Amino acid sequence: MADGALAGEDGPLPGEDGALAGGGGALAGGGGLLGPAAIREIAERLGIRPAKRLGQNFVIDPGTVRRIVTLAGLRPADVVLEVGPGFGSLTLGLLPGVRRVIAVEVDPVLAAELPRTVAARAPGLSGRLEVITEDAARVVGLPGEPPSALVANLPYNVAVPVVLHLLATLPSLAHGLVMVQAEVADRMTAPPGNRVYGVPSVKLAWFASARRAGAVPRTVFWPVPNVDSGLVAFTRHAPPAADVRRDDVFTLIDAAFSQRRKTLRAALARWAGSAAQAERILLAAGVDPGARGESLAVTDFARIAAAGSGGPSASPGPAPPGGALAP
Questions:
Q1: Which residues are CB-neighbours of 90 under 8 A, at least 6 positions away?
Q2: For the chain, which domains are there?
């Protein structure tokens, strides 16, 4: 996934005299951030045109890069995981302030070019960068010290699965900031009862508290997408229950939102084995069987899963207390 927040139409890369900021500020160790002219030169030299299938929309505004780095709240001791570095716009902004950046790039051409770009523009920081050519949605481990922060510009169509996969796979990720399509940002951060509250909202809440951290206009990308972007900041917390498996809770969440208009008694009938069994489990968990999924917090789903022990074969039990990390 190459530096792409959103799928958009191909278009010419704006020049330095266009509407976007060019140039870039100096970095420790020399060089500077990538502006439109620098990205145009790299793209032309490599023969690259943004690929829609990879959701490639590249950030070409240094001011946006500086803003993302600031809002990410990084510390000098942080090891940052960057997904989809692309040409290195954000990578160059991240390197001066952290101990290490692990850049995961699925495009082998861009992955091979990134170390050369950093060496040319910030030679004193080259030793802090490690590039992994891999699909972030399939990462199961990373070399060296585990990452403590995730900072990424994500393709809208895979943003939520990638974030959830990385949080599940890399427990060392303590905080982060991701740029996604504005509507996806709304869904990721929606509270219970909100009209866009749904599966992404609840599953992300299992791992972390999330909030909208700002808006990003479409004009800072090449090609210019058809929608705006939003920044989502998150901080990991302990899961809401100690005696229930995450997979069981996520299966329950999927079932509850598969038929949003139905009451939980009806929506969970298949999951529980029958509507009557669903009602018994819901009552044991202290949840109104006439409620709908969008009214429940992740703690409610954890109680229901614990009461049902994952499905129809279990006998409902008392609601468990919240607590420490679940497996």
A1: 3, 59, 65, 68, 69, 82, 151, 152, 153
A2: 36-236 (3.40.50.150), 246-308 (1.10.8.100)
Give whole-number Cα distances, 95 to 27, 81, 165, 262, 294, in Å: 9, 11, 24, 49, 40
Tell me the whole-structure pTM to 2 decimals: 0.85
What's the pLDDT score for residue 55? Answer: 58
Nearest in space to 200 (alpha carbons), one of 239, 228, 236, 161:
161
Q: Which residues contact 215 (CB under 8 A, 6 or more apart)?
A: 182, 228, 229, 230, 231
Q: How far is residue 116's CA from residue 100's CA, in Å, rounded to a whole number?
A: 17
HEC-encoded secondary structure of 306-324: HHHCCCCCCCCCCCCCCCC
Distance CA(305)–CA(278), nearest Å, equals 11
- Rounded to the nearest 10 degrees, how much is the dihedral formed by the CA atoms of 178, 78, 102, 45? 70
Burial track 160-182 (b if 16+ CB lie within 10 A, e otherwise): bebbbbbbeebeebebbbbbbbb
Residues of the chain with pLDDT under 50: 1-26, 28-31, 310-327
The β-bridge partners of 106 are none
